[in-house]
Design goal:
53% helix; single chain; mainly alpha; Arc Repressor Mutant, subunit A
Length: 133
C-alpha cells in the first residue's frame, strides 16, 4: 500500500518502505520478489532505484497479490488436487473449504489496492480526529 499511496511511478527504495511501515527489509525482500515475478511491481537498479507499481493501483486486486505471494489462491491443497485424497468426492470438509474458498476469492477479486489505500487514508483521518479532554 506504500507504493499505492505515492500515486507516482517514481521508484521507492525498499529500505524507505521498511522504515515507513516499521517492518523488516529482509521480510520485504521475500514479498517483493514474487510480486515482481508476477509483474505487479517494477524494479529499477542503481542509486535512484527501487520499486514502483507496474500497473495502476485500481487495476491490482488483493487476489492478484495473494496469488503471487502465496503461490496460488486455494486454501487447501485438495481443492486443486483431488487425487490427493481418496475421499475427495464424498468429503464434507472439502465442500465447506470449497465454499469458503469461493467466497474469499470473490472478495479478494473485488478489492483493489486503490480501495485498500482509500480505507487506510480514511482510518488515518479518523485517528487524527480523536482527542482526549
Amino acid at each position: 500500500m506504500e507504493l499505492a499511496a505515492r500515486k507516482s511511478s517514481v521508484p521507492v527504495a525498499l529500505g524507505e518502505v521498511a522504515r515507513r511501515q516499521n517492518i523488516s527489509e529482509k521480510y520485504l525482500w521475500h514479498v517483493v520478489t514474487p510480486l515482481k515475478k508476477a509483474r505487479l511491481l517494477n524494479a529499477v537498479s542503481g542509486p535512484r532505484g527501487g520499486y514502483s507499481l507496474a500497473r495502476p493501483a485500481a487495476s491490482i486486486t488483493l487476489r492478484d497479490i495473494l496469488v503471487a505471494v502465496e503461490d496460488g489462491d486455494s486454501l487447501v491443497e485438495c481443492l486443486v488436487n483431488t487425487g490427493l485424497c481418496s475421499r475427495s468426492a464424498t468429503c464434507a470438509a472439502r465442500e465447506v473449504w470449497r465454499d469458503l474458498d469461493r467466497k474469499i476469492g470473490a472478495i479478494t477479486q473485488s478489492v483493489t489496492l486503490e480501495d485498500m489505500e482509500k480505507k487506510q487514508q480514511d482510518l488515518k483521518s479518523v485517528e487524527a480526529l480523536e482527542y482526549v479532554i
